[in-house]
Batch of 3 targets.
Target 1
Amino acid sequence: MDGDAKLARLLEHPAIWRGRSAAHPRGLPTGFAALDAYLPGYGWPRTGLIEILVSRFGSGELYLLLPALAALTRARCARWCVWVAPPLMPFAPALASQGVALDRVAVVGGARPLWAFEQALGSGACDVALAWARQPKAREIRRLQLAAERGRTLGVLFRPRRAAREASAAVLRLSLEPITAGVRITLLKGRGALRGAVDLLRPGGWSV
Amino acid sequence: MPRAAPLRLTGRHAAGRPVPELWAGLHLPGIDPEKLQQLAVCAQRFTPRVSLAPPDGLLLEVQGSLHLFAGVAGLRGALMSECLRLQVQPVLAFAPAALAALVAARAGQSLAVIDLAQLTGQLAPLPLASLRWPPDTLARLARMGVRTVGAALRLPRAGFARRVGSQQLAMLDVLTGRTPEARVTFHASERFRRRRELCCELENHDLLLAALAPLFAALGAFLRARQCGVVELECRLTHRHVPATRCVVRLAAPATDVQRLAALLGEHLSALNLPEPARACELRADALVPHLPGSHDLWQPGEHGGSAGNEACGLIERLRARLGSAAVHGLARLEAHRPENAWAVTEPPPAAGRRGAQTGCSADAPAAGRRPLWLLPAPQRLCVRDGLPRRRGPLRLVSEPERIETGWWDGGEIARDYYTAVDIHGVRLWVFRERAAPHGWFLHGIFG
């Protein structure tokens, strides 16, 4: 009997629980089958803070979220989708043509993005809140995560790639880099998640 | 509990029989509307049933008040002195029907008719013009030799209705008290103003907020008693030397919860730089809005379909209190070909409510061509080498051009060929080349 089979038999023991088989609440479908299979809960978590680390603004990080945003804003009792301190103004016609319902989108500018983000996450008025922050501290990220759980909100924080080495309380951390035909997504942290990277190719619709 | 609609009609009936009424009609030629309102508020001293007859009339039902002012003469004196105080010169007439009192006053007759039986006789000599009928009707009647109320009343009713109009006939009936008239009672707008002198001068925001607590308690009682909410609250802090500091809280929806108001005012105060310690504070709420308490959801927001109306309003107010009112806005899409004009900033979206699930994108049909998710505030010029644009290295054009050429009619003419380009880091950009010389390249958006 070789090692793999031995290991498999050992793991069948009912006293052994594995992280991957832990009960995950059903996630929010990302709209990309490959990514759904890769994420714990088979989709974005519905509650909690996730971090998306990108090397450069505009690497395709927003297109990754658009199908989920469209589904959330078009739901029957949709709450808000709040954008906190986006670096540029989101272009309304493009959002609408991707299926996002603009009557659920609010943009918050101003000087204190992290405070506004925490308010939006904790208020319970939003289904999803997106934020762009320069250098949040680990303590602040923990506060954001707690606020997201309090308000039953999905918080998405976009951070630069170099933050990958810092500890974070986010439930899910992804790193994203553009490759020739699409983007490569590496999972840095996730409760009971697989390791490795997944490549999403740009289909015709995504390549816009 | 919904607010009971206030009883607005002033026809009083007891046991099926109309109670005798006595109306005081004031004719105030050339009065401005603001003064009329002011006079109406003052007139509420004499009776609760005050009715406006814009543009220049005011009616008071005074039957119940006569004995308090020693009869009609005493009441006339009191009313005239009140008018003099406000510097208006009215003609005042008393009659058992509201319209009769008003018409008599318009005719310049200071009548005092108390008995309904005498009314018709007293009205007879008044000119018809005081009824303010259309000029051609009056001219037609004048050609028939009918110039006074009495002459009009003597005409056969059926013929009068046919020739002059049934509306005018009904008005004559109201005038003589044959049919009762329902008049809308004037309600003065109420406001809250409460001031408190501080026992020592305060500068600390928390202490100021604590000093304001009794005023907030009074405001809460005031709003509860009237089942009203406020949409704007003003706090004035008086100083020893410099003019008072004003701090205005504006709300997204009528608020009755004083604790929330106090918390919002605290946010505003903390953003405020007081020039001097405050000696007194005052709370003002001028515009009261009827408040209909909403029902609460069984579900929490975000659960199964619990909506988040209250939370949404609270969020907007907190964000606006600290970041300024321009910091929160919504987005709208406009039908325009120029990318710069294809979107607009709007008020924040309405609080989440139930609505039909939207499926598909049929309502928001995709615009022609590809559009980036981010648009630069203004096109940014790119440097060019060998006829191709560069941004941190050469750009690779990966799409067919899309020509946007429009706006020649309003001076904002554009003629551009848009391309999707990829820079050396793999970021997809929306660039355009101007059709006119010198054919510059510009970056206009990032696909994201």
Target 2
Amino acid sequence: MRFPRLRLPLAVVLATGALAAHGGVDAVRQELAARIEAQLQAAGAQAAATPPESAVTTPAAAAAGPTPMEAGKALWGRKFKDGRTLASCYPNGGRRVAASYPLYDSRLKRVVTLEMSINQCLKIHHEPLLEATDPPTMGALTAYLRSLADGRKVAVRVPAAAESHFEQGRRLYFTRFGQRNYACASCHVQNAGRIYADQALSGAVGQATRWPFLHANQALTLQAQIRDCLDRMGAAPFGAGSNEMNDLEYFLTYLSLGLPLKPNTPR
Amino acid sequence: MRPHFAIVAAAGVAFAPAVLAQKDQGLELFIRPDKGYCIACHQVPVQAGPATRSNVGPALAGPRMRELGSAALHELLRDPTRANPDTIMPPFGKHLLLDEREIDRLTEYLLALP
């Protein structure tokens, strides 16, 4: 060594520095861990303190505005310029029809979702169309319309002509994409029931029976939820009402065939 | 001698916050939703990070990390599908979720787990 007398002080200083650093790291790590844990507990406590069903019925929530069901019922009963209402476009005034959607329209040669059927009705009556995932309008309308089929069993049919759409939906469900390289099935089939980010992953079967989901007094359609999921996967979400999204919903709903509708699930 | 000692002492003092910052970054990358977000799937020993119930991936422990070694761990974080095409672990480096330096920080954090 060029400076033999420097050897000991050098070792002492480096060791002291490293020890100090190590102690500091532990302190920071513990502090950070405690802070994150406190945040997680606070979030958990907040979630636990929120009564699931009453989120849309408590006076506080009502004071913030009409519930999605109330808003949806009002929109449903609103008269068009020609004096008709949305109910005029559906058999039984809309009762028990939601369980049959999405359905394949052989004339359009595409899958028609409940939201699309609402917009078709509006178009026929020369009314302005609604954005497919807009919570205050389309979300609220689906909340009401699907509540008219509460308990009805999912009755989606896949005729031979619609098999390519069903297959496209199945393919999309199992295809991995996005920056995180997940498929829908990665979480909701392969890891259903496991805990991700401190929440149990729901299974694919039954997922399509529970929408719209109620969150912060807003109704989120299934496609809004899928888009949110895709966004979190680091994937550019398919457009709401696009063929890809409709086919995905078609496949996902078919997985719940025969299960009773239980819409307006709190989230 | 004295000037040299002062330089080395100063280096030692400067070294401490630098190491601290690096380790801190590793934990931050481990828990940030827009970065690794490893905490969503994996648990770590209580004193090493927030306690969760995550169980999509295996619980991580220092001995297993050190058994894998730095190079293998780095490669696993960069693209786990090379070792196991069926894994659902994101290819953090290949898909640019983390850059090389961030993977280094995360590797250091994992190797230092108790």
Target 3
Amino acid sequence: MEVLLRGIHKVYKTGMRPNKVLDGIDLRVPSGQFVAVTGPSGAGKSTLLYLLGCLDYPDFGEIHLGNRDVAKDGEGLREKIRLKHIGFVFQDFRLLSALTALENITLPMQLAGLSGAEARQRARELLRLINMERERDQLTGTLSGGQKQKIAIARALGNLPELLLADEPTGNLDSGSTREVLEVLQSINRSRTLTTIMVTHDPQAAAFAERRLVLEQGRLREEGHDSNR
Amino acid sequence: MIASLAFRNVLRNKERSLLTLVGVVLAIGSFVALVSLAAGFTKRVERELGSREVHIYVTGSRTSTLPVSPLAGAGGSGVSLPHELKDILQVEGVRSVAPVIRSSLDGPRSVIPVLALPFDQVQIVFKGGEFSSEPGKLVPKPASLVLGKEPESTPEPEPLTNLLPESTATPSASPQVTETPAVEPSPTDEEDVDTPPAMSDDTLIYPALIGRDLKQDVSELQRGGVLVIEELPFLEGGGMGSHGFLDYSVIAPIDAFFDQRPDRGVHEFWLTLDDEKQAEVIKQQLDARLKEYVDAKQATGEYTGARKIKVLTRRQYLASAQEYLGYGWLLQVAVSMVGVLIAVTASMNTMLMSTYERLGEYATLRAVGASRRVISMTILYEATFLNVTGGVIGLAFGTLATGVLDKAVGLLLEIPYPMAGITPMLLLQALGLSFCVGIVGAVIPCFIVSRIDLVEQLRKGL
């Protein structure tokens, strides 16, 4: 899925002063590209991701996912887009602790209307992909940080999305797990030609991406592009 | 999946869920117990009224229309109608007029020697026998009462001694026993008065009953027949039957008694018509006659002030009784609703706490594509699961509580028979109520979740 942003503005009103977070962002991400967005804390990286993920609306501008400007869509339609076309990976995993690893992965699939059997079958394949078949029946509270994030990635992939958004996916992980998770993201991006946009403050993590952008003072600038990755 | 998630959410905070469950159990239990009392009583009233072959009722204005004990005397049912009205009420189309006093079969306080049948069997209780008096007190002669059934269905009278426990069936059990008198059987309403049902005269006496607590024996006597009562000890006490809360309260025509106590009024007159379709026409005739009667009495100064006599068709009488019953229902439901309101509050509180704790989770669900409807359904399932589980346990608890309450009410109000009636419909209503408690408890949490700021919640972390 191609992603196109045009003139995105976003202002948060915190206290008396408005905080201009995004100040006319223009961006085009071709389908299948793995993009890392870095920048200092508070630069608006997560805000950008939430806008792309249809979780928030811009004050101005267009957000084209494929051929559709989702900034103009209502919440009902955006819910469906989130469910079927976008996968989201969070820094703090956001797994449901009451459910097992397998159930966390099947949840979005079942929300999308897959039968229990189909969802479980697909979830088992994803667990194989991230090499966590043995942990499938464990409650997620018992897993390590790296394992949780891999389960979160599998959950994000359940409905075969065309866009994967990762918000600091390695922010809570040790170096070993960080590498493991990034390799999974990279591998999935390559094998599925899945447009992947990852927000990170870690330059080493960003180095796993094909294209690197920096968000500063509300604007994006290109930092590097390596099409051989 | 949503249901499974809701179920697991309930189990995540077991203590809180348990407390909510207890609240719902108590609320539903009290609803079942209280409403079953009202329902049981209503059913009893309606069954009795439906079973009577009475087409028109004539009552005093202060007489309550509740037909059965324990509340037959409620509403100040003074004995207000003069017995002489009986002749005035005898118009064309009226087959029989039966004066009625309500009383109870409870030893010394009773005034009328009658036995109760199950209300669905009672057609009418006929007069029988006669009384004679001595100065200062009434000394009854043997009286007989035919306990009502239609003549064609009335079996040949059976010796009551065969129907009763042997230990109490012996005439010598009572010092008041006398030899069997020759008793004329009484007619039934559809039987020619000149051809009373056959009865044997040697085994029908059961004087051991006199003055005893008949409650345990009445179930045997409910089979009908003729009972000869030799002596009426309650009359010696001189006490009139109070409208106590007693079982086997009987509504009986008692012409014989009025022969001895013409000054005594009656509660009601029961009229049986040749054709019930004429009830409305006959009612109007009776209204006119009674007005003339009252006017004449007032003109002679015999009555002062207003004296109201009501003429009610069967349907009107039932409607009037139902009005009384409605207040009872209202009271019972109102009391039980207090418990239900507490349960709603508890449920809502639990769901609110649980929702606030899980706003982050709900935001995550939204982020991965769950719609607001799905999130609301999760909350509804959770609340419903909790409350319906409480409701099911509450049904069991309520059934037990009904038994206890029934006994307690029986002891307090002297009602020896079980009055509460737990019906499948009541259980369904209670279950529906627990479902509603769950739904209402989930309304505010659903509203809150539908309005959460996704970005804010996602930034907060879980």
